[in-house]
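Our consortium's second objective concerns turning raw sequence data into structural hypotheses that experimental partners can test. To show how far this objective has progressed, the report includes one record in full. It was chosen at random from the queue rather than selected for favorable results. The single chain below, 153 residues long, was entered without modification.
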Amino acid sequence: MSRVAEITSASDRHYRAAIDLLVRFFAEEGFKTPCEQIAQNLRNMLADEGCWAAVLLEHEQPVGVVTVSTMLYVEHGRLAEIGDLYVVPVRRGRGLARRLVDAAIDWSRRRGCSGVFITLTLEGEARHRLSDFYKRLAFAPTQRTTMMLASAR
């Protein structure tokens, strides 16, 4: 008997579903990352013990995905970042994204992380008011600014 909704690792059996959901997410949000690069990056993440990806299934159909990466810091020890969180539009507003975040937090705690953070894009905030969603889940602003030097690939 199948469960109505379950969260399962994105390895092996659900790897392709995770890629499909991430490609859909990136396209909807206007990211230009090619499918092949998404697939390779996910493969690399799944091979790294400090990373995790999971798919949310409803009636055995993939409807959501989350990715998490960890890093070590002198100040805080190991921290996790939820890098990607996506639920297909027709399934939104039913608590599924919250379930994925809860699963990511649980996974992070089991790995000894002292905290979990997220990075919000200006576009994501404008389009979806993501800070309101995360504040309801007890995330709080850090008063830090994240900056990045893109590689010269």
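The partners drew two points from this record. The first strand starts at residue 5 and ends at 9. Residues 5-136 form a domain with the Aminopeptidase fold (CATH 3.40.630.30). Both points have been shared with the crystallography group to help prioritize constructs.
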